[in-house]
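Q: Pkhd domain-containing transmembrane protein, please. Structure only.
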Amino acid sequence: MTQEIKKTKKKSTQKENVIQEESKAEKPTKPAELKYGPPVSFPYQRVWSRCILILGVLLIVWYNSRQAKEVSLAKQKDVLVSRTQNVDCSVDYRDELEKYPGCVPEKCGRVVTDKLVSTTEVDVLLKLAKGGLDLAGSDGGASILDLHSGALSKGEGFINIYKQPAAKKLFNNMDLAIYRYGS
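A: Structure for Pkhd domain-containing transmembrane protein:
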């Protein structure tokens, strides 16, 4: 019985093979349609096409960045005595103007100047700040120095910096006069 089953299986597979061959012979084979265009025609085509695409994107970004719509009030390389720009006041500010006339400025704007503090004054102020903060040492995050009141954060509290002997050597009358003039 098993031999008969084997023979019938063999015959059925032979018939299937014959049918497949006939169907292949009947249909003319036409070339398969390419889904993404023609095959690669020169070496490294993918690399070159990606490079051209990247260069195109960079060119577009560069071209659009040249057409800046911002107008700068002052550039870093400019040395200005004074340059101003008027700005519309906010609604809240206008309400305060009506509530308290004469207490607040009536114009809103921006001012840029390089002559507010001279370079020698900046050097003196920086020396005062660094020297004062060298005497600090708070347990928390930032150290605080208030030259108006003399408050300096030290440990968990504040001390009066003007009562410290090291501060008397650090702060002289000339430096403090520059500080008072600038503030």
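A: Brief note, in case it's useful. The CA atoms of residues 71 and 85 lie 12 Å apart.
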